[in-house]
């Protein structure tokens, strides 16, 4: 008889455990409901932003530093600033050394990624001394990521 009572006691404890797990405390249900509300709100805000956000074009400005010797060439470091919230990928920058209307030399660089409202740095190499010519550095094109 002892063996049967022991088994019956084990069964009763297992049954009691499943009924406890089925009814969770109110604070657990409150936390779960809060999680569902937060997830639905995040998804809703992302959908709203995607449907209503107006795409603009990046507003790129280039600022240069004075040229420096770099081996047998000269380097002009630049800072590209994106003044809008739109990202530019593969931003192509061109520098020209000019003498009047004549382009003496060109140099090009590509910035892989320029996020909105940010800045990145780069450099352009020239064989001729940029200090002896008019230097123009400007963005040429970009890709949308």
Automatic annotation (TrEMBL):
The chain crosses the membrane at residues 30-51. Keywords: Membrane, Transmembrane, Transmembrane helix. Residues 1-22 are annotated as: Disordered. This is Uncharacterized protein (TIGR02588 family).
